[in-house]
Write a structure and sequence with these properties.
41% strand, eight-stranded mixed sheet, alpha+beta, 2 domains
């Protein structure tokens, strides 16, 4: 065997060994990331199991709908920008009932139509008031459905008349 063949085989062996080391390191890092993701997922799942929203009362003042919500679970809820609030009701548009189904987005401070805000953080066994600004006043005596979902899972549904 010539010297050049020994050098060539040595380089090939070095490249194969380098690729194997890089592959092993990448696989180990990927496994660590996967384990962290699974732990995070499990933590969120446990928080979902300990979250229980409930609509206590609903009051209307003009186009402002005040909803008292309680948290009967054991998780503090404060990331309102990740909540989903959907309202279905019949709006009074020029004396005619018009169905409105809309997603209301969270804002800090004063709310405009199709927006809502909250008075405080929702502690375990605590209550807070969320205020929705409706685009139209409700038509009297017509049914309405309000859905409030948190980023931790189970939400609350209220059905009634406004």
């Amino acid at each position: 065997m010539g010297f050049s063949q020994v050098i060539g085989l040595s380089l090939i062996a070095f490249v194969v060994l380098s690729v194997a080391v890089i592959y092993g390191a990448t696989a180990l890092r990927d496994q660590q990331l996967y384990s962290q993701a699974q732990q995070e997922r499990q933590g969120l799942y446990e928080e979902q199991l300990s979250t229980q929203l409930q609509v206590r009362s609903v009051a209307l003042s003009g186009t402002s709908l005040r909803v008292v919500v309680s948290d009967n679970g054991s998780t503090t809820l404060y990331q309102y920008s990740h909540f989903s609030v959907v309202l279905q009701y019949y709006g009074n548009v020029s004396g005619v009932p018009v169905m409105s189904i809309a997603y209301y987005s969270y804002v800090r401070g004063e709310a405009s139509p199709y927006q809502w805000n909250a008075t405080s953080i929702l502690e375990p066994d605590g209550v807070t008031t969320i205020t929705l600004e409706l685009p139209y006043p409700p038509y009297p005596g017509e049914p309405a459905v309000l859905t409030v979902d948190s980023n931790y899972g189970p939400g609350a549904v209220w059905r009634g008349t406004l």
